[in-house]
Every structure is written in structure tokens, then in C-alpha cells.
Specification:
Elements: E1 2-3, H1 6-22, E2 29-35, H2 39-54, E3 58-64, H3 70-82, E4 88-91, H4 101-107, H5 119-126, H6 135-146, E5 155-159, H7 166-175, E6 179-183, H8 190-194, E7 199-202, E8 220-223, E9 227-228, E10 234-235, H9 240-243, E11 249-250, H10 257-275
Parallel strand pairs: 1-11, 2-3, 2-4, 5-6, 5-7, 7-8, 8-11
Antiparallel strand pairs: 9-10
The protein binds nicotinamide-adenine-dinucleotide.
The site of nicotinamide-adenine-dinucleotide has 25 residues, from helix 10.
């Protein structure tokens, strides 16, 4: 079973970006807004900020208290929309319940929406005219490309239908010529579908959901899930040990899709920056 090494792929992409940045007099700028004190969100934001600094980007980390009003957050986004030194704006999700996340995402101008979550960027992706597309699915496509997986005509099953992963993932795969099924909590006979898949993207957020009796020999398994165990360790949505020897390739957790997501965020910021040159 081939291990698709996301850590190394991400490192290579970051190196490429860092070399590209050296030729510019002004560094690309990424602003990350964090609301509240959620520990996982704080960790993600720290990792994103560190990655920015490493490739020579200007990084602006804005931390707001969880009692910020929607109005105040909207004006913060507007301020960043107008800031000429900021090319990408990211609002770390989830936001507190009193704030309408959709409203905040739509307030980011599409040219600076480096997460690719705005209706305009999602619309472009679904029409195969992508400008900036969501980081995790885009990272997955790069990982599939790294093992020379030709997706044309392949049967792909996605487990999970969120706006962040499952749905944009379906569009990416469809754009690459695959036949796509998107499964979710309400899907009947899910193993019937996964068993006939050439490629499975697991993004349900359920630890060790995909087992050996869910898959066929030679399947490619992309494990997007990040599930914290009681002992603090991290596990994916695929039962790695159980599928070993049946799947032909797999992305590990940790060290798979996670690092690629951050590297693609940097790439999206560079795309947003270069579009303004
Ligand atoms: P979400 O909770 O928004 O969506 C989960 C989806 O999975 C839903 O569509 C739900 O219906 C479906 N689902 C849940 N349980 C299921 C089951 N038993 N069978 C079939 N479908 C099921 O989650 P999300 O934001 O899309 O994230 C999914 C997972 O991916 C989480 O573990 C998250 O931490 C991880 N994630 C990882 C990265 C990364 O960079 N590696 C990025 C984003 C999300």
C-alpha cells in the first residue's frame, strides 16, 4: 500500500511558493481572523500564520473576543477588503452561534476569498472556471496527481457533503472527468457504494469509519478526517491498519491532507496577489 506523503508534497509546494515570492518587492499578505478561544481553531490559526512567515508572506493575525457583534466583525472584514497590503482574508470557522457565518464569508470580496467559500468562487468552481477553489479539495487533487491517478472515468465516492470539503471535492473530481457519488448521514447502503469505488474520499469526521469490508482491492483512499482521540492522538476516518494490504494507496493521518490544505492556502493567496499585478 503506497503512502501518499502529504508532508513532503506540502513542503515542496511551500518551497516553490517561497521562491516565487522572492522576486516581488511587496510580500503577499494574508489576514486570518480568529473569533473566540476554541483550542483547535487557535492551533489551526497558529499553523497558518507560521506557514505564511516561512514562505515570506506578510501575515496579519486578528484575534477577536467571542462576544464581538456581527456588525463589528463585518466592519473588520471591510477594513481588510480595502487594505492594499492584504491579498487574502480568511475567517477561521466555526464562528460563535450569534454570528451568521454565511454573511461574513460573503462579505469578503471574491478576489481576497482565499478559502474559496464565497458563492462567486464556488460558482466558478462548479462551472469549471475556477479562480480560487477551496483548499482541502484542491490539496486532495494535487495528492491524486502526485501518484499519477488519471481520474477520467474513475468511480469516486465522497463520504461527507459539507461546503468545506464534500461538495467542492465533488466539483473538482467532476471537472477532472470522474463519475462522482456524494454520501452523507442520510445515505442508504453506503458500503454498497464504497465497495465499487476506485477512489474514496473520506470526510465524515467519524474515526475509523472506513474498514476493509467497505472497499475493493486496489482502491485509492484519501483520508480527510481529523479525529482527536481521548489520549490526545489524532486519527482519520479510515481504519488504516484494517485496510492495509487491500487499498493500493492511502493518505496518512497525521501527515496527509492536513499539511496540503495549509500549503494550498498559501498558493491561493499567491494567486490572489498575482491577479492584482
Ligand atoms: P461536517 O461535520 O461539516 O460534515 C460532515 C459530513 O459527513 C456531513 O455531510 C455528514 O452528513 C457526513 N457524515 C457524518 N457521519 C457520517 C456517516 N457515518 N456516514 C456518512 N456520512 C457521514 O465536517 P467537515 O467540516 O466537512 O469535516 C469533515 C472531517 O474532515 C472532520 O474530521 C474535519 O476535522 C476534517 N477536515 C480536515 C481538513 C484537513 O485539512 N485535513 C480540512 C477540513 C476538514
Amino acid at each position: 500500500m503506497k503512502i501518499i506523503d502529504g508532508k513532503t508534497l506540502a513542503q515542496n509546494l511551500r518551497k516553490k511558493i517561497a521562491n516565487q515570492v522572492k522576486q516581488y518587492s511587496r510580500p503577499p499578505g494574508l489576514a486570518v481572523i480568529l473569533v473566540g478561544d476554541d483550542e483547535a481553531s487557535q492551533l489551526y490559526v497558529r499553523n497558518k500564520t507560521r506557514a505564511c512567515v516561512e514562505v515570506g508572506f506578510y501575515s496579519d493575525q486578528i484575534h477577536k473576543s467571542s462576544n464581538i457583534t456581527e456588525e463589528e466583525l463585518l466592519s473588520e472584514v471591510n477594513r481588510l477588503n480595502e487594505n492594499q497590503n492584504i491579498d487574502g482574508i480568511l475567517v477561521q470557522l466555526p464562528l460563535p452561534l450569534h454570528i451568521d457565518s454565511n454573511k461574513i464569508i460573503e462579505a469578503i470580496i471574491p478576489e481576497k476569498d482565499v478559502d474559496g467559500f464565497s458563492s462567486e468562487n464556488v460558482g466558478k468552481l462548479s462551472q469549471n472556471k475556477s479562480f480560487i477553489s477551496p483548499c482541502t479539495p484542491k490539496g486532495v487533487m494535487k495528492m491524486l496527481d502526485s501518484i499519477k491517478c488519471d481520474l477520467r472515468g474513475k468511480d469516486c465516492v465522497i463520504i461527507g457533503a459539507s461546503n468545506i470539503v464534500g461538495r467542492p471535492m465533488a466539483m473538482e473530481l467532476l471537472n477532472a472527468g470522474a463519475t462522482v457519488q456524494v454520501c452523507h448521514k442520510g445515505t442508504k447502503e453506503i458500503t454498497h457504494k464504497t465497495k465499487s469505488a476506485d477512489v474514496i474520499i473520506a470526510a465524515a469526521g467519524v474515526a475509523n469509519l472506513v474498514k476493509s469490508d467497505w472497499i475493493k482491492e486496489g482502491v485509492i483512499l484519501i483520508d480527510v478526517g481529523i479525529n482527536r482521540q481521548a489520549d490526545g492522538s489524532m486519527t482519520g476516518d479510515v481504519d488504516f491498519e484494517d485496510v492495509n494490504g487491500i487499498a493500493s494507496a492511502i493518505t496518512p493521518v497525521p501527515g496527509g491532507v492536513g499539511p496540503m490544505t495549509i500549503a494550498v492556502l498559501l498558493e491561493n493567496t499567491l494567486i490572489a496577489y498575482e491577479a492584482k499585478l
